[in-house]
Amino acid sequence: GLEMGSVAQISLPGTPADQVIAQSPPPNAQGVASPRLSLLVTAPEQSKSFVMPDFGGMPLGEVSVAITDAGLKVGNVSTLKQDPSAVAQSQATGAMVARQTPAPGQRVSPGMIVNLEVVR
Q1: Cα(120)–Cα(118) distance, integer angstroms
Q2: Looking only at Cα atoms, what is the longest distance across the chain?
Q3: Is this prediction's pTM over 0.90?
Q4: Please, are residues 82 and 90 in contact by the beta-carbon 8 Å criterion?
Q5: CA distances from residue 103 to 31, 108, 114 in whole angstroms, order as listed
Protein backbone atom coordinates (compact mmCIF):
# COMPACT_ATOMS: atom_id res chain seq x y z
CA GLY A 1 0.00 0.00 0.00
CA LEU A 2 2.96 2.40 -0.30
CA GLU A 3 3.64 4.80 -3.14
CA MET A 4 7.15 5.33 -4.46
CA GLY A 5 8.51 8.77 -3.65
CA SER A 6 11.88 10.03 -4.76
CA VAL A 7 14.91 7.82 -5.36
CA ALA A 8 18.33 9.42 -4.86
CA GLN A 9 21.68 7.80 -5.64
CA ILE A 10 25.01 8.00 -3.86
CA SER A 11 28.36 6.67 -5.02
CA LEU A 12 29.98 4.35 -2.48
CA PRO A 13 33.07 2.63 -3.96
CA GLY A 14 33.13 -1.11 -3.36
CA THR A 15 29.38 -1.30 -2.74
CA PRO A 16 27.16 -3.11 -5.25
CA ALA A 17 24.81 -0.92 -7.27
CA ASP A 18 21.14 -0.51 -6.32
CA GLN A 19 21.59 -1.30 -2.62
CA VAL A 20 19.18 0.60 -0.35
CA ILE A 21 21.22 2.68 2.09
CA ALA A 22 18.41 4.68 3.69
CA GLN A 23 14.68 5.16 3.41
CA SER A 24 12.07 7.63 4.53
CA PRO A 25 9.98 6.91 6.46
CA PRO A 26 12.29 4.50 8.31
CA PRO A 27 11.33 0.84 8.82
CA ASN A 28 8.57 0.26 11.42
CA ALA A 29 7.69 3.98 11.52
CA GLN A 30 4.49 4.78 13.40
CA GLY A 31 1.94 7.45 12.50
CA VAL A 32 3.08 7.98 8.91
CA ALA A 33 0.90 10.68 7.38
CA SER A 34 1.60 9.77 3.76
CA PRO A 35 2.12 6.27 2.33
CA ARG A 36 5.02 7.57 0.20
CA LEU A 37 8.43 5.84 0.44
CA SER A 38 11.64 7.64 -0.58
CA LEU A 39 14.92 5.75 -1.00
CA LEU A 40 18.67 6.42 -1.06
CA VAL A 41 20.41 3.74 -3.14
CA THR A 42 23.99 3.10 -4.24
CA ALA A 43 24.92 4.21 -7.74
CA PRO A 44 26.81 1.97 -10.18
CA GLU A 45 30.53 2.63 -10.24
CA GLN A 46 31.49 4.96 -13.05
CA SER A 47 34.41 4.09 -15.25
CA LYS A 48 37.47 6.26 -15.11
CA SER A 49 37.61 8.97 -17.70
CA PHE A 50 39.66 12.05 -18.45
CA VAL A 51 39.93 14.87 -20.93
CA MET A 52 41.87 14.15 -24.13
CA PRO A 53 45.00 16.30 -24.35
CA ASP A 54 46.09 18.13 -27.49
CA PHE A 55 48.87 16.15 -29.16
CA GLY A 56 49.17 18.54 -32.12
CA GLY A 57 52.78 19.29 -33.06
CA MET A 58 54.23 16.54 -30.85
CA PRO A 59 56.46 13.71 -32.13
CA LEU A 60 54.57 10.53 -33.02
CA GLY A 61 56.75 8.31 -30.80
CA GLU A 62 56.15 10.47 -27.74
CA VAL A 63 52.41 10.61 -28.42
CA SER A 64 52.18 6.83 -28.86
CA VAL A 65 53.80 6.27 -25.46
CA ALA A 66 51.49 8.82 -23.79
CA ILE A 67 48.43 7.18 -25.33
CA THR A 68 49.34 3.67 -24.16
CA ASP A 69 50.44 4.91 -20.71
CA ALA A 70 46.96 6.44 -20.29
CA GLY A 71 45.33 3.06 -21.00
CA LEU A 72 44.19 4.06 -24.47
CA LYS A 73 45.01 2.33 -27.76
CA VAL A 74 46.76 3.78 -30.79
CA GLY A 75 44.51 3.22 -33.79
CA ASN A 76 45.11 4.24 -37.38
CA VAL A 77 48.09 6.46 -38.10
CA SER A 78 47.80 8.13 -41.48
CA THR A 79 50.03 10.64 -43.25
CA LEU A 80 48.69 14.01 -44.36
CA LYS A 81 49.90 15.72 -47.49
CA GLN A 82 51.82 18.73 -46.34
CA ASP A 83 52.62 22.05 -47.81
CA PRO A 84 56.21 22.61 -49.02
CA SER A 85 57.08 24.93 -46.12
CA ALA A 86 56.46 22.12 -43.60
CA VAL A 87 58.60 19.54 -45.43
CA ALA A 88 61.96 20.78 -44.13
CA GLN A 89 60.73 21.01 -40.54
CA SER A 90 59.16 17.53 -40.52
CA GLN A 91 62.25 15.96 -42.14
CA ALA A 92 64.37 17.35 -39.32
CA THR A 93 62.04 16.26 -36.51
CA GLY A 94 60.37 13.05 -37.83
CA ALA A 95 56.64 12.38 -37.90
CA MET A 96 54.64 15.01 -36.03
CA VAL A 97 50.97 14.73 -35.03
CA ALA A 98 48.78 17.12 -37.00
CA ARG A 99 45.28 15.87 -36.06
CA GLN A 100 43.74 13.39 -33.68
CA THR A 101 40.45 11.66 -33.03
CA PRO A 102 39.00 11.97 -30.40
CA ALA A 103 39.66 15.70 -30.55
CA PRO A 104 41.42 17.58 -27.75
CA GLY A 105 39.05 18.35 -24.88
CA GLN A 106 36.74 15.38 -25.44
CA ARG A 107 36.13 12.95 -22.58
CA VAL A 108 37.82 9.57 -23.08
CA SER A 109 37.89 6.30 -21.14
CA PRO A 110 40.53 3.57 -20.87
CA GLY A 111 40.51 1.22 -23.86
CA MET A 112 39.34 3.83 -26.35
CA ILE A 113 41.12 4.03 -29.69
CA VAL A 114 42.97 7.21 -30.70
CA ASN A 115 43.50 7.77 -34.43
CA LEU A 116 46.29 10.07 -35.53
CA GLU A 117 47.17 11.98 -38.67
CA VAL A 118 50.82 12.94 -38.99
CA VAL A 119 53.10 14.95 -41.24
CA ARG A 120 56.48 13.48 -42.09
Answers
A1: 6
A2: 84
A3: no
A4: yes
A5: 58, 10, 9
**Sheet (strand 73-79) strand order:** 73-79, 113-119, 96-101
Q: Contact at 8 Å (CB) between 70 and 111?
A: no
Dist CA 97 CA 111 (whole Å): 20
Residues 3, 33 contacting (CB under 8 angstroms): no
Q: Which helix (H) or strand (E) holds 91?
A: helix 84-93
**Contact status, residue 42 vs residue 15, Cβ threshold 8 Å:** yes
Mapping DSSP to helix (H, G, I), strand (E, B) and coil, where does residue 25 land?
coil
Residues 98, 59: contact at Cβ < 8 Å? no
For 25-67, the pLDDT digits (tens) are 888 888 777 778 899 999 988 778 889 999 999 999 999 999 9
Is residue 67 helix, strand or coil?
Answer: helix
Cβ atoms within 10 Å, residue 44: 10
